[in-house]
Amino acid sequence: MNKRSRRKVLVLALVFGVSIATVLGLTALEENMLFFFSPTQVNAGEAPQERSFRVGGLVVPGSINRLPDSLTVQFEVTDNAENMTVEYTGILPDLFREGEGIVAIGSFAAGGRFVADEVLAKHDENYMPPEVADALKASGQYDYSGKM
Amino acid sequence: MIPELGHFALIIALVISVVQAVVSLVGAAKNNAALMAIARPASLAQFFFVGLAYAALTHAFIVHDFSVLNVVQHSNLVQPLQYRITGVWGSHEGSLLLWVFIHSIWLVALAAFSHHLPQMMISRVLAVMSLVGSGFLSFLLFTSNPFERVFPAPLDGNELNPLLQDFGMIIHPPLLYIGYVGFAVAFSFAVAALIAGRLDATWARWSRPWTTAAWSFLTMGIALGSWWAYIELGWGGWWFWDPVENASFMPWLVGTALIHSLASTEKRGVFKSWTVLLAILTFSLSLLGAFIVRSGVLTSVHAFAVDPERGVFILAFLVIVVGSSLTLYAWRSAAVVSIGRFKWFSRESVLLLNNIIFLTAAMAVFIGTMYPLVVDAFGGGKISVGRPYFDTMFSMIAIPLLLLLGIGPTVRWKVDNWKRNSKVLSFFFISSLVLGMLIPFLVEDQLNIAVGLGLAGAMWVASTTFKELFSRLSRGASLPLSYLGMVMGHLGLAAFVVGVTVTMTYHIERDMRMVPGESYDIAGYEFRFQGVKKIQGPNYTADEALIEIWYEGKKVDDLIPQKRIYSDFGNPMTEASIDVTLFRDLYAALGEELENGAWSMRVYYKPFIRWIWIGAGFMAIGGFLAISDRRYRQTVTSRKRRRAGTNATVADNVA
User: Which of A88, A91, B116, B253 is the most exposed place for a label (fewest CB within 10 A)?
Assistant: First the structure.
């Protein structure tokens, strides 16, 4: 096989590999995409009923309610316009606190409760999840001075 | 005074780097030995001044100079000395200074260990390195000055993020940066070769040990980051597909392709322009990583305080570097002729396949990481890509990779006959597959295809690697260090695959609610919760639990997980406690106090998780073995002799 046609075949193989990867990748991507919604959007019914999604906001002070003899916690998150209740069973992250920004990943369970599989808090003092910041800006409640 | 000195030293370093780049590039273009000769001393000078700046900032941290904003923000009076020294790179500004400092170390190392290279080549390489360095120095000086003062100076500073007060954090960033920045060396060699218009196999030989070294450091850096996250974040996971982890993983993947492609180019003179392109791509991905981390565009554990100006700067820098090097490439590479010829079944083909697989993997990570950004930019809303995407992609990519890796090292350069090894290889293939499938069945009484395939793949790679090793030994063939390095690297990957498959399938994770006196059984281990007491650390107070672990009536270990409150903010911090053996980790992390003296607690059983980091360690050691091969030094001396009498020797003496 001469050089030119060999190079062609090699390039074709490369293109083929990359396109297979792209197709498989986009399929897997489509299935595992998580959309973000603010409490206002969730209450307006914009969040999917069947699929997992992410919701974020500030933990409403005084709303944390621990069910007795279990690791189940209920708390409210807010974008300072509307509130919604999140239920989570497990250990909350170190920096989960009242008034702080969090992101919860989960879906609706029976009875319309939002059950989170994972709760993420910010990781240092000055950092707020960008989605939460944007949600607060959208509701006109963002404090531009930096700290929440 | 000293901080101003540091700031001034940085400015001098920036000036030197620009002057050096221009003068030595002009010198090389005009073949002017005197101009080219400034490359080495100027590199040394850059190293000196950047080192001075680095020392100045470290000094400010050590002596609690709270008139420096960076010191105020990232250290306080009670912080132990070692975390004041490492606190230097706990901030965006300081870590960028570390980055620039490491860049200057690579630069001075290049200048010191390159006396075998023609002066023209090394002048160009050092010039390109300096240009890249000047980009980072400007970034540091114009957007992120670490020496900024604050007036009036406060009496005490803010605590360094407690997450960063850990041994893993002392060594993880430097190693990672050594790797990232090291790829700038490979990039500089490639660009220098492009400028010279001489893309022969020699540039590959020269840049190969440097690239392998950078790759080994990056491997260690990533592995340490994973290990630190496992211990320190208290989640017991070892990889989260976090954008910043991906940012380090992409250059690693393409860098792995690069070190394999360099082998083809060096030994057989093939894939020349491809290898150059890979070198450019690897470094570009390092820069992209820097952009992702520094700009805060993606949600991440690692996000520094966000400043859009910095993102714009790096993005511009990235565009300049990629744009100019690709233009140069388009202009020069047309002249490149591949001399090597090879048949379908040859080492060259196998290495090409390796490249395709690693690039596919990098592409998968790239898409998963950048897609949310693209969607957001086009107004498609905030999305993120869940970890199942990455897990699916990588388990699919692992199959052809392991298949290929078992065959690859047995195949000869240029042309080979499949029949030569087909019997032995088929035997190993079938027995690995059978054994791999059998093991989970025997241990767990249950067929598990995923684990079976993973174990089979690992055994297949290990067995053919050993087969090749033994047949070399029995032939009486020499075993150069570079070959042993490859063996180590490939065995490392096999160990890594075992670790990943077993951990991911058989790990047990329980979030528990426990009262003192209670016990809980996991995988035959009994976790006995004895209670919690308060203790006092140097700059924190903690609740410390005592959990005894019993196995078959014998006590194995005491686990003492802590929940620390660092003095400044009352920030809680989980400090996990782990009982380690080669085959399993027992992991306990303290949650929070519940009602009636109960505590929430995480208890994990993680079989074979150590193999993940041991595997990565093997890979890194393999890289270091490969670069200590005599081959690189031999070619050095023989080349020197051959070159006697050329202007290069004169220039060498000057330097």
Answer: B116
